[in-house]
């Protein structure tokens, strides 16, 4: 029996016509059911094996096949018609390099300006008394700014995937996802904020051998309060962005994570600076305030745990989602130690304004890529499902950046945004007279080299990590982004500090490094 590559259509109950595809095509449990092969006789009398692939429509009347954001060669225009569940929203079917870049550009620039604002804030507050006399606060900066990767970006990726596969189409499903996920990130924010303060105390104590219990309680209160309030505000913003994106026919994967970062750095750093400054002022006259602040936020933990535990959508993450956020916090804290040791030296005070920018841009871009790859994999099944998703040992750089795959195309687009984006952000910093560094040609070359190398490494690691986690039966939405953004903080801070040291050694006095 021979098989011919031909398509036929079969009517469905919802009025949509679905293709009949060749018998060797696979249908995942998520996308439909594979019918038993049947034989038909072609015009020439030869046997033709066909398989009917039923397509499950989501609540909006959009087939999951159509929701998959693949390249144009994957499928033709959707034949879906509207259903009795309401009007059909515009669902992106094809994505060219231009369409990917167009959707990512505005959120990327918005996120970048948010990191510029955060850098300007850090450049100002580094001279405050609390940063001068409790220098461990600098160690908290990357760890707490990294919460947008540990929590908000993970939330955005998780909700983007749920929205793309039709799990947030009804009011009941939407409310369930909102309440469960908001409670979950409050639990994670409180715990991670507490652990970040412990890491800051330890990393601050090891080099100097000096320990102050008052400073330790101050760090704990500042960290927990900042993490809780920032996660609450940003989580609500993320939910609104994702719902709005779906209604406008925009892929949430392209916009949610950058917008999470656009306000994330600024809000978190402003809260950390303000809260730590206020608690530092109360340290001498009202020493009991700091312990009370810690006790208040920690006492709320059981409430959030109960809410998240009752929700099936977040129960698994509540039990198994701690490893990535805690390890990511530790990685970011190492970057914070580098920042603390660098900006504490008057020769490198100008590094403070650029650190949130280079870390934020790298984290934003790799989070977009990881979220896109994760959504692509979720469209074909569940984690660990299918031989085509077996964990890869190590992809080649050519397959990551130069193949015809849609994820490779998006990696090229994101990488090409680095130089023009950073040039805009550097010009903005210079125009606002931020930092202690003049933008000379040699400084820009060193800075761009560090930024390109950071994003190149992150995109390559993302390609391997997301597929590796998927093959290991781990949901990349919950596990990959915390690691990637934390690595972005560490790599970005390390490369930037190295650039400043090299510039100081070669005597680039025109850039005022060291003034």
Automatic annotation (TrEMBL):
- Ranges for region Disordered: 1-44, 60-94
Signal peptide limits: none
Annotated organism of origin:
Chaetorhynchus papuensis
- Keyword entries, A-Z: Ion transport, Magnesium, Membrane, Transmembrane, Transmembrane helix, Transport
Question: What gene is this protein a product of?
Answer: Slc41a1
Q: Does the keyword Membrane apply?
A: yes
This protein's major location comes to membrane
Q: Which family does it belong to?
A: Belongs to the SLC41A transporter family.
What Pfam families does UniProt report for this protein, alphabetically?
Answer: MgtE
- Which InterPro entries does the record cross-reference, listed alphabetically? SLC41_membr_dom, SLC41_membr_dom_sf, SLC41A1-3
Q: Which domain of life is it from?
A: Eukaryota
Residues that span the membrane, as ranges: 104-124, 182-204, 216-243, 255-275, 287-307, 319-339, 411-429, 441-461, 481-506
Every copy of the SLC41A/MgtE integral membrane domain together lies at: 141-275, 355-498
Q: What is this protein called?
A: Solute carrier family 41 member
Tell me one GO biological process term.
metal ion transport
Q: Which SUPFAM superfamilies match?
A: MgtE membrane domain-like
């Amino acid at each position: 029996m021979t098989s011919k590559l031909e398509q036929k259509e079969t009517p469905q109950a919802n009025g949509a016509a679905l293709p009949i595809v060749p018998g060797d095509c696979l249908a995942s449990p998520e996308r439909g059911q594979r019918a038993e092969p049947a034989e038909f006789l072609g015009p020439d009398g030869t046997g033709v094996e066909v398989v009917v692939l039923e397509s499950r429509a989501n609540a909006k009347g959009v087939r999951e096949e159509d929701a998959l954001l693949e390249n144009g060669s994957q499928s033709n225009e959707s034949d879906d018609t509207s259903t009795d569940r309401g009007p059909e929203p515009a669902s992106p079917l094809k994505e060219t390099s231009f369409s990917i870049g167009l959707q990512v550009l505005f959120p990327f620039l918005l996120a970048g300006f948010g990191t510029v604002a955060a850098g300007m804030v850090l450049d100002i507050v580094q001279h405050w008394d609390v940063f001068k006399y409790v220098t461990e606060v600098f160690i908290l900066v990357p760890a707490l700014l990294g919460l947008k990767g540990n929590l908000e970006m993970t939330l955005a990726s998780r909700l983007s995937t749920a929205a793309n596969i039709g799990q947030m189409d009804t009011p009941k499903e939407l409310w369930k996802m909102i309440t469960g996920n908001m409670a979950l990130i409050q639990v994670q924010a409180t715990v991670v904020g507490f652990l970040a303060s412990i890491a800051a105390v330890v990393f601050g104590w090891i080099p100097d051998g000096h320990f102050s219990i008052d400073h330790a309680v101050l760090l704990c209160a500042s960290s927990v309060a900042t993490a809780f309030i920032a996660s609450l505000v940003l989580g609500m913003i993320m939910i609104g962005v994702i719902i709005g994106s779906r209604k406008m026919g925009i892929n949430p994967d392209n916009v949610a994570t950058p917008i999470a970062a656009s306000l994330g750095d600024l809000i978190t750093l402003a809260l950390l600076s303000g809260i730590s400054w206020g608690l530092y002022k109360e340290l001498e006259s009202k020493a009991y305030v700091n312990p009370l602040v810690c006790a208040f936020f920690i006492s709320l933990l059981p409430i959030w745990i109960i809410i998240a535990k009752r929700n099936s959508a977040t129960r698994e993450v509540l039990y198994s989602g701690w490893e990535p956020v805690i390890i990511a916090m530790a990685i970011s804290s190492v970057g914070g130690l580098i920042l603390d040791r660098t900006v504490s030296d008057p020769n490198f005070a100008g590094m403070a304004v650029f650190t949130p920018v280079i870390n934020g841009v790298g984290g934003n871009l790799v989070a977009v890529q990881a979220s896109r790859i994760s959504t692509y994999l979720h469209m074909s099944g569940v984690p660990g499902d299918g031989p085509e998703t077996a964990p890869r040992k190590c992809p080649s750089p050519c397959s990551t950046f130069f193949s015809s795959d849609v994820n490779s195309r998006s990696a090229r687009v994101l990488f090409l945004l680095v130089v023009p984006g950073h040039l805009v952000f550097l010009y903005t910093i210079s125009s606002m007279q931020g930092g202690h560094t003049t933008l000379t040609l040699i400084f820009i070359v060193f800075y761009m080299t560090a930024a390109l190398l950071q994003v190149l490494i992150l995109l390559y690691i993302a390609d391997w990590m997301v597929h590796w986690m998927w093959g290991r039966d781990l949901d990349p939405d919950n596990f990959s982004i915390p690691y990637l953004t934390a690595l972005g903080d560490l790599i970005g801070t390390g490369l930037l500090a190295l650039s400043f040291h090299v510039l100081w050694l070669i005597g680039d006095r025109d850039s005022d490094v060291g003034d």
